Amino acid sequence: MTSNSPTNEVLVKVTNLQRHFPITKGIVKRQVGAVRAVDDVSFNIYRGETLGLVGESGSGKTTVGRVILQLDRATGGSVNFDGHEIVGMDSSTLRSLRPRMQTIFQDPHASLNPRMTVASIVGEPLLEHRIGNHDERNATIERLLLQVGLHPSHANRYPHEFSGGQRQRIGIARAIALNPEFIVCDEPIAALDVSIQAQVVNLLEDLQQELELTYLFISHDLSMVRHMADRVAVMYLGKIVELAGVDELYDDPLHPYTQALHSAVPIPDPFHESHRERVVLQGDIPSPSNPPSGCRFRTRCPIAEDICAESEPAFREVRPGRFAACHFIEETAVSVPAGTIDDQASTV
Known about the structure:
Largest sheet: 8 strands, mixed
Structural class: alpha/beta
Shape: globular
Number of strands: 12
Low-confidence stretches: 333-348
Helix content: 25-40%
């Protein structure tokens, strides 16, 4: 877990957020359906904290991050950033908030313009928002490169001259150029070698302490999320199924899907690995364009009953500070042996 000290001040408040992508057919592009990538999602992000967002590929994690930043426009719901409602905000007003909200993309190879030098990439936000003169921008670029562990002499090189980890550092330098308060980290280590991942994660933690940043950390790596996050939200098919403090969620997962995610993580202990009970999900994740009725997880849930098809479970506070969406939440509570997942993060 990060050593940053979160406050009780809500920086980002997401309420009933929706993002549906229309499915069209024919020459006139008649809408015949919609992909419900994000469907009625609500949570808060407190100033100074790291909120982890985990789930399978296709669950809607990246779309949530993009809609919060309004890189994708919301279909419905609300995103309130530090008292400003940004869903439906006009472009000029939203532009004035952009320096305070930034993102780090997953693929450092695709997110950097190969025709631009490092100085141009890192300095582009400064130029776009007309911050400083030429000499001041160059001094800021030099400082930013040093801050992320690169040498100022790298400023005139091009992205193809760097390794994947170095490219991600360039992306991080660009993200912090405008002194943001909130950064969406969209699987920032997924495309990196395992040997480099820990270095980038440690850099993000150091920058959070130094710059008092707030993170939404999107990842499918449960052990890394436990190392980084203060709280964790678990997504399945466009919905959040569980939200809790990191230690509570990892030591005592309540939702059957969260338990299945834990079960999929190998334990670096042969004795525990050979004796623990595995939760194996049957089938594939359903299509977000045609989700199951009632509970969306019911088609793969080992404890599903008729009520799960008839009504959707409410996302509710089942214990103080713990939220989950399951009709049988008390029956699903289990205890995960201490040190099972945390051991993997101990190398960071």
